[in-house]
Amino acid sequence: MKQFFGKKSRSALAMVLLISLGLHIVAIVIFGTIKFVSEALREETVFEAAEIVPPPQEEPEYTVNLQQRNRSTPPPQPPTIVVNNPSELDIPTLDIDVNVDSSSVYGRGGGGFGGGLQGVREMAITADIFGMQITAENLGVILDVSGSAHATLDKAIAEIDENFPTAYMVLVVGCGMSDGERALKGGGGKVPGKPRVVPYDRRGSNDQYDSLGRSVPAQLEDFFRKIGKKRADELRRYFKRRDNLFMLYGGDIHAANFAFDFVLDQNVDTIYWFADFADSIDKEIIEDLTRQLRRNRVQVIAHNFLGKPVRKEVKAMVEEVGGKTLEVVPGTN
């Protein structure tokens, strides 16, 4: 035993322990280094997942019944227009001539003549007047109511009312053209004041009669007595309710040119003149009137109700403005 645990044995055992300890230290260092490197590599590695692509699918087929859809689908609504200031709204202009002149001479506005279409331009109307075709958007009528017209006046009124019920109708005595200041031959024949067109006075005031009874109301009363009470009452009611009914009054009442001036102011495009053309006509006045008619592109239909030729001054004016003459007795054509 003593030899076994001798000095050499202890030295060898110590050596073995030292070697073993060194190996453990080396092993610890090696494994620690491997562990540290592994952790470092694990932190720096980034794994990206592969993109997931869904499996392809077949799209279903749809069949649309267009006919049924068109029936059931309401039309698209127009976009809402918002205007902050109503005055900025652009409103298209309407081509309507509305006269609202309240003048007592022309009889517009407050007083009125009823609920008709006074002052409103109509669409073009084509109709026959005693066999002659007339086309007009806005017709003016100058109607002689003097004694020579009484035999046919009723027919003329009926013809006009049937075809052009809203025409501007001016009742005049005679068909002369003058400055309105001259007295008629035979003495008197003048109503105080310059000739002017006024609303027809249904009252028949005494101040509308001249010294020879030649004013419009006087001539109509004479006419009513000739046609009988029944028809006279019908015409009185007609005159009472008719819109756009006027008469020439004052001065030298044989001055139809003042009636022409009035209807031209109403923007008429055609004038129907019913007269016998037996009265004197001032040459300068009819020439000036012809220029006005041509400038305003207004045609004139001159009807001689006695069936005689229209006098040359009037015929020249009618031809100059592209109008027509009618020479037939109403009721005989």
Share of helix, binned = 25-40%
Instruction: Briefly note the structural class of the backbone.
Output: alpha/beta
The SSE order reads HHEEEHEEHHEHEHEHE
CATH class category name of the domain at 125-327: Alpha Beta
Strand order of the largest sheet: 5-6-4-3-7-8-9
Strand content: 15-25%
Please, could you describe this protein's structure?
The chain is rod-shaped, with a radius of gyration of 54 Å. The strands form two sheets. It has a seven-stranded mixed beta sheet with strand order 5-6-4-3-7-8-9, covered by helices on one side. Strands 1-2 form a two-stranded antiparallel ribbon. The longest helix has 38 residues, at 7-44. The protein contains eight helices and nine strands. It is an alpha/beta fold and 333 residues long. The protein has a domain at 125-327: Rossmann fold (3-Layer(aba) Sandwich), CATH 3.40.50.
Task: Briefly summarize what is shown.
With 333 residues, the chain is an alpha/beta fold. It has a domain at 125-327: 3-Layer(aba) Sandwich (Rossmann fold), CATH 3.40.50.
